[in-house]
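Task 17 of the worksheet. Students: predict the tertiary structure of the chain below and write it out as structure tokens. Keep your answer in the requested format; marks are given for formatting as well as content.
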Amino acid sequence: MAYRLFCLQSHYRRNLVFSWENLDNAAAAYEKLIAKIATLKDEGGIEPMMFADLKKRFAKALEGDLNTSVAVTAVYDVLKAKTTDATKLALLADYDYVLSLDLIAKAEAKRQENAKAAAAKSAGGYTIVGEGDPAIDALVMQRYEAKKAKNFAEADRIRDELKARGIEIIDTPQGAKWRKV
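Model answer:
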């Protein structure tokens, strides 16, 4: 998707200047765009006049010799517009039908990820991310409880036991992650 955004940011009649730095910039822009869309809530109802006006601008960009760079700018214009989130989401879904950047689906996934992280934070800031093995998850949780109780000897013992089973634990601010090594 980052490469698609990179290509859409340039007019098809101009040479596309590829570099890894430019692609990285497009990837960062894509992630920021998704994060911004993820903050929108489907509230307030659609404002028909604003919807029609912004949709017309997008169509005009594409009618102008398929100027996708201006069409991508129209996406950002929607995010800055003084209108309801419902209008913005409807417009972005409409634009994405043409641009095929998977904006709405990726934003929904990001929204769910953010909600999951917020729920984990409210539950003591601890999550287990692994391969779904309940026995290992239980040991990782026991290790967490031991660390929380400042029983570092027990926490180290559990970590060593997991290591002997070929499990690596990585502590992060979001909780513990584990993987088989």
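Marker's comment: The radius of gyration is 23 Å. The first helix runs from residue 2 to 8.
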